[in-house]
Every structure is written in structure tokens, then in C-alpha cells.
Specification:
36% helix; Rossmann fold; alpha/beta; 11 strands; 225 residues; five-stranded antiparallel β-sheet
Length: 225
């Protein structure tokens, strides 16, 4: 009987690929591939399957990866040639979604042209997250979206405590929308909280809006209501 869990192939087990394989294996069926025996052995006990292969070899790759795989992650950014060939092979095999790590904009352009559905710049994305948290200490996490929109987890400032969302008028004042609240005490997730929801010091606001609007909320939030 086929598992309902996603089948994911992670190719390249450097630092990024290793972490990706370990995290995905908690929720998906993961096939981890690398040309290094040491790297394969490091994840073998934690993923569903781990094999030593040269991803540049189409015959070897297609003997292990089929079009039945839901996605593939190509983490061969340190080897431009290998990542391009591997992405091309995966497209020929018929893998539906191919996420490929890129080392430069030119590399990303080539990867997309040969079949990558998404290119990844881990260092850039990590830097954006850390920079955002440095600029805004209340910011716990964020997810960048298209057209300058972002989803952020924000610890509400003291001025918000004890007030309802209606009283705070977040959407009117800051042009952002509270899509959820993560209550820590007691632990509960409230999706689309109503206008009468009262903000507590232990709550985390999940907000969506443009980057400038979210920044304005940070700047003005501590002002008296």
C-alpha cells in the first residue's frame, strides 16, 4: 500500500542538504543521495533511504528516482556543473517539483532554464530573516510573499495588551491584517480571531501586510492608543 506521505529526494548532503533531509524525514519519505560515503552515512539512520551516487550520471539517477517522487531538492550549489546536470536529469525523469540551490544569479537563471521550478539562496534568505529580527526585536519570524507582502509572527508591544483587535484598529491604522493569534498560555492557535479578541502579553500575532506597513506598526505600536 502506498504511503500518504510525500516522497522527496534530497540530492547533495552538505550542510544545507543534510539539514533539509533530516527535517523532511520527520514528515516525508526521504531518499538522500550524495557522492560522499561519509555524508551518506551521517544521515542514513535518520532518513528512509540513503545512497551513494554521482548525480551527474543519468542512468544511475533514474534507477533510483522516478516520476512518482513529489519533489526533489538539489543541494549541489558548490558544484555548478553537477547541479545543472542533476536538475536537467530530474526534469527528464518527470519529477514534478524541483527546488535547486543556487550560488549566483547566473547559476539560478541556468537552473530555471533546464527545469528547476524554484531556486534557493539559503544564505540570502537566512540573512534576511536575521536582519529583520535585528531591525525589529518584536519580530519572531516572517515569511516573504510576492509583491512585497510578508507574513510575520510578532510579539505584541505592551501598548496592545488588554485591548481588543477592534480597539487596536490594526488594519485601519497600519494597513496590516491579523490572520491568527498563537496563544501560549494556554497553548492554542486561533485562526482569524474576531474583533473582540483581547490581546494578552503571552500572545503572538500572525500578521500579513506590506513590508513598509509592518515596519510602520513597529514604529508606532508603542505610542499611546
Amino acid at each position: 500500500m502506498k504511503s500518504n506521505r510525500k516522497q522527496i529526494c534530497v540530492i547533495g548532503l552538505g550542510q544545507f542538504g543534510n539539514e533539509m533531509a533530516l527535517e523532511l524525514s520527520k514528515h516525508c519519505e526521504v531518499l538522500a543521495l550524495d557522492s560522499s560515503e561519509e555524508r551518506v552515512n551521517a544521515v542514513a539512520d535518520y532518513v528512509q533511504r540513503a545512497m551513494i551516487i554521482d548525480a551527474r550520471d543519468f542512468g544511475t539517477l533514474c534507477s533510483l528516482v522516478t516520476s512518482d517522487f513529489d519533489e526533489a531538492v538539489v543541494s549541489l550549489g558548490e558544484s555548478v556543473e553537477a547541479s545543472i546536470l542533476c536538475t536537467l536529469h530530474l526534469r527528464k525523469i518527470g519529477v514534478k517539483v524541483i527546488r535547486a540551490k543556487a550560488s549566483s544569479e547566473d547559476h539560478a537563471t541556468i537552473l530555471r532554464s533546464v527545469g528547476a521550478t524554484e531556486t534557493i539562496f539559503p544564505e540570502r534568505e537566512t540573512a534576511r530573516r536575521i536582519a529583520a529580527q535585528i531591525v525589529n526585536p518584536n519580530l519572531l519570524d516572517f515569511i516573504p510573499l510576492a509583491e512585497d507582502f510578508e507574513v510575520m509572527d510578532v510579539a505584541p508591544p505592551a501598548a496592545f495588551h488588554g485591548h481588543t483587535l477592534q480597539e487596536l484598529r490594526i488594519r485601519e491604522r497600519f494597513d496590516v491584517f491579523a490572520i491568527a493569534v498563537k496563544e501560549l498560555v494556554p497553548e492554542r492557535f486561533v485562526f482569524l480571531p474576531g474583533p473582540d479578541f483581547v490581546i494578552k502579553p503571552s500572545d503572538i500575532l500572525v500578521l500579513i501586510g506590506r513590508e513598509k506597513s509592518l515596519g510602520r506598526l513597529r514604529e508606532e505600536a508603542e505610542e499611546e492608543l
